[in-house]
From TrEMBL:
It holds the Pfam family ABC_tran. InterPro entries: AAA+_ATPase (IPR003593), ABC_transporter-like_ATP-bd (IPR003439), P-loop_NTPase (IPR027417). SMART domains: AAA. This is ABC-2 type transport system ATP-binding protein. SUPFAM superfamilies: P-loop containing nucleoside triphosphate hydrolases. GO terms for molecular function: ATP binding; ATP hydrolysis activity. Belongs to the ABC transporter superfamily. It comes from Sinosporangium album. Keywords: ATP-binding, Nucleotide-binding, Transport. Residues 3-228 form the ABC transporter domain.
Length: 236
């Protein structure tokens, strides 16, 4: 399944968050979505996932808006920063509620808990989880429907080196199976080792889109290419 963003714009009052953004995310590849804080990454992802309405243009999943997908969790799994379960709820209950609401078998809950390494902590309330454990739970929720597309915003935030390595290898394998991965991250070294291509956004506009080799041509690293493209010398 393909993601197609075309002429997308989003305004909040007088502020232009996203300005005529267009890009395509293809199956079989990990596509990185890069940009400084406030560049428009999160807004674009929120519109794609039906959480915000665009001012103009479209963000489509296999030609449809997210809200028009018949079984959305079976098509798209997502992890967004700031979204999370009720802190007092147990992890297994959180995932079971999501599964039931999407007619996903209960056995899948335990499959994804095992996949992300949370089986032993499944009956703990989420408020006792570390940041990294919370990220693993968010990834588990994204994987519940065994979706054809993954949209992940900062998935390795708070993970230890082993967890980061697991996410990297998992996403590359997921894409290699013919599925679609859109990955937003501020960790340049990790993105360089995970993504096949990248979309770079700055001040609400796309400034580069292509293979990592093309984007880094003439630069010693993805980080220096990013700074050159965005003019951001102060970091993220």
């Amino acid at each position: 399944m393909m993601i197609e963003v075309s002429g997308l714009s989003k305004r909040y009052g007088a502020k232009v968050a996203v300005d005529n953004v267009s890009f395509t995310v293809r199956p079989g590849r990990v596509t990185g979505f890069l940009g400084p804080n406030g560049a428009g990454k999160s807004t674009t992802l929120r519109v794609l996932l039906g959480l915000d309405h665009p001012t103009g243009g479209t963000a489509l999943i296999e030609g449809k808006r997210y809200r028009d997908l018949r079984h959305p969790l079976r098509k798209v799994g997502a992890l967004l920063e700031g979204a999370g379960p009720v802190p007092e709820r147990r992890a297994v209950d959180h995932l079971t509620w999501i599964a039931q609401s999407n007619r996903i078998p209960r056995r899948r809950v335990w499959e994804v808990l095992d996949l992300v390494g949370l089986s032993d902590a499944a009956r703990q309330p989420v408020k006792k989880y570390s940041l990294g454990m919370g990220q693993r739970l968010g990834i588990a929720a994204a994987l519940l429907g065994d979706p054809e597309i993954l949209v992940l915003d900062e998935p390795v935030n708070g993970l230890d080196p082993d967890g980061i390595r697991w996410v990297r290898n998992f996403l590359r394998g997921y894409a290699a199976s013919g599925r679609t991965v859109l990955l937003s991250s501020h960790l340049m070294a990790e993105m360089a080792g995970t993504a096949d291509e990248a979309v770079v956004i700055s001040r609400g506009r796309i400034v580069a889109h292509g293979s990592l080799d093309a984007i880094t041509a003439g630069h010693p690293s993805l980080e220096t290419a990013f700074f050159a493209l965005t003019g951001d010398r102060a970091g993220w």
